[in-house]
Each structure stands twice: as structure tokens, then as C-alpha cells.
Design goal:
By secondary structure, this protein is an all-alpha fold. It contains 3 helices and no strands. The protein has helices at residues 4-12, 22-28, 46-74. The longest helix is centred in the last third of the chain and has 29 residues, at 46-74.
């Protein structure tokens, strides 16, 4: 799947705090296909590429926080927790 907006919508169904990632997902979605094959399109402008990196970091950070909160709430150990 290349539509990150759709994925964000699906994730927001489980955790409403992730709905705020729709704009970042909209920025990133074209990168899934637009620049995949050499010669299809020119490379993005440097400022656009940095915007995409910032959006990707925001999504990664927010999803990581949501997953950590979910695992903490369920009593499961996460990878940073010491063993028994």
C-alpha cells in the first residue's frame, strides 16, 4: 500500500491521537511511487526532501509513542524493559 493517508486513518481508528498525522502522511505519500524508478521524474527539491524527512520523523515518533503507550497499558514488556 502506498497511500499513507489511508494508513493514518486506519491507525487513528485504534488511537485517535494519530489522526493529527494526516497532513504529514499526505506530504509523504507521493514519495512511495514518484521517485521509485530512475528517469521517471526529476528528483525532489532539497527543501521538499527535508520536509519529507521531517514528516517521516514525526510519524515515526508519534506511532512509537502510541505503541509504547499501548504496550504499557496492556502490561506487556517492551524492548526497553528489563526482563523478570
Amino acid at each position: 500500500m502506498h497511500d499513507l493517508v489511508l494508513l493514518v486513518d486506519e491507525c487513528a481508528g485504534f488511537d485517535g491521537t494519530l489522526s493529527g498525522l494526516a497532513e504529514a502522511a499526505e506530504v509523504l505519500t507521493p514519495y512511495g511511487t514518484a521517485f521509485r524508478y530512475p528517469g521517471d521524474m526529476t528528483e525532489p527539491q532539497l527543501s521538499d526532501a527535508w520536509e519529507a524527512v521531517d514528516c517521516a520523523r514525526r510519524i515515526l515518533d508519534d506511532v512509537g509513542i502510541a505503541l509504547h503507550a499501548e504496550s504499557a497499558g496492556s502490561g506487556e514488556l517492551d524492548s526497553d524493559s528489563p526482563g523478570p
